[in-house]
Amino acid sequence: MSVANAGIIAAATGPEAEDPKKDIEVVPSHGNTFDEEHPVAPDQFDPKYETSKWEVWAYYAYYIGNNGLTLFNFAPTAFQDLLYEAAGDSERLQFLGAFRTINSIVLLANGISFAIQVVLFLLIGSMADYGRWRPYILIFWSIVAFALGFGWLGVHTQEKWPAATGLYMVGLIAYQMSLTFWTAAFPGLARNTPQMREKAEQYENSEITREDYDFADMMERNRIYNVAFIMQSAGEIVILAILVGILFALHVRDSAANNLWGLSVLIAYATGVWIVLSIPWFILEKRRPGQPLPPGKNIISVGFWNIWRALVQIWELKQSLLYLVGYFLLGDSLNTTVTVIATLQNSVVAYDTLTLTYLLIVGIAAQGAGILAYWLIQKRFGLSTKVMFDAVMIGIVILDGWGMIGIWTQKFGFHNEWEFWVYQTFYGLFVCQWYAYSQTMISEVTPRGKEFLFFSLYSIMGKTSAFIGPIVSSAIIDADPKGNNSLPFYFLFGLSLLSFLLLFFFVDLKKSRREQERFLKREEAAKERRASIISQGRPLNRGGSHGDDGEAVKKHAKM
């Protein structure tokens, strides 16, 4: 599924020329009315941190291994299948104090898992950017994921569905945490290549402009990303092809018990591949130092501090704030839509492991074709990020409208097997690009030099939205006496349509750029005022200004 690729896409389209793991130094710009902030990182000029060819290939290898087949794709299927076998004809089980439908339990467990992820990211997410903890956090969560993957070998009979619930929920956490801390290495890897070292030196020597440096930075990240995505997609298809042979050898279609055992073996096999492919990265990664902690902050408080700073600043940028709201709502809708459709797909194909594997192969191939097609169309016709983003939003609204029709009829609306073949193709061609263009849009509405702050804010908002939708959808199903599993599409279609209208009609990137320019000018005026006060030996008040000078800054901001 494309969500498994979201991390690398986000990294490739993320903030330009600023690495959260690097020190920031303010250097006077040439030809500009205000100072530029640009990365000045000791590791960027230290030969021992220079990115080697083998390190890059080890990075690709980890991505091939952590492809999502284990804890993101097939573990949820195994969990839902165990619930189905345990529930019997009633198709309901006691879970968290109530008798719930199978789909409701899956959605609720999914929501709780994402809620725990939010807490973890708030508490330890800053370790991805500060200090030297990131590589070790990645190894820790990878080992947890490996253990959970093999743990499924002992959980393949219906009476063990409570244990499967724990494996599923913790598995999603381990998968997302390992993917996040692996992705965090991406900017440092790209910006320490020999090519970027040369560009950084040229920039420091004023031989090239900030725009030239940003462009080179973007192209280097895109090059590594494109190769990584191609390698991951090709590798995943090879892994799935081998899995098909294993599943035939296990005779998974002979009985429900064989199918459940096949799912457990599948998860364990893919976990073994992940282990083999992760070892080179654990050995060859160069432990580049992260950003030093700000004075008076510790590794826990700095994450909350950054989010607070971004929240305070975004209120001065109306377009950025509008996009934040729309991003929160539409991201929630899409994540929940994918989960709801996955539960319906598992049910319709009767959890048949071979069919699900074939569907996944089609989906992966369609995603590769879709991402390439969007990129070629945008390049050929010179379309803006906003235009491409709008096209993706239309695809999301269509998906939820498609599902909503299934509330009233069994003939259409994710009730037939053929629909899921169409869905996998449609999703890959027209929807999965959300994970790239939504991140690029963040960079479009973010003032230069504020990328790290704003990406941190959008990241935590995205994580927060991921648990609300599943919990609401679970409650909607539970509230219906018949337990109609399509009912969440009422909520999801309305949420997607509202988000689309907000983002399509009210987010204007030209207005956003003007707001960013005014914001940066106000901030520069405040910096100059503070510098003037300090040079005159006058004390600053708590707001960073001096009495009447603070009022002068406010007057300047209104001009």
Automatic annotation (TrEMBL):
Cell location: Vacuole membrane
Amino acid composition bias (Basic and acidic residues), ranges on this chain: 545-559
Aminoacyl-tRNA synthetase among keywords: no
Protein name: Autophagy-related protein
Membrane-related topology note: Multi-pass membrane protein
Cellular component GO terms, alphabetical: vacuolar membrane
Family according to the record: Belongs to the ATG22 family.
InterPro entries for the chain: Atg22-like (IPR024671), ATG22/LtaA_families (IPR050495), MFS_trans_sf (IPR036259)
Transmembrane segments: 102-124, 136-155, 167-189, 224-248, 260-284, 321-344, 356-377, 389-408, 420-437, 457-477, 489-509
Lineage: superkingdom: Eukaryota
GO annotation terms (biological process): amino acid transport; autophagy
Main function: Vacuolar effluxer which mediate the efflux of amino acids resulting from autophagic degradation. The release of autophagic amino acids allows the maintenance of protein synthesis and viability during nitrogen starvation.
Region feature (Disordered): 525-559
Pfam families, A to Z: ATG22
Keyword tags: Amino-acid transport, Autophagy, Membrane, Transmembrane, Transmembrane helix, Transport, Vacuole
Primary location: membrane
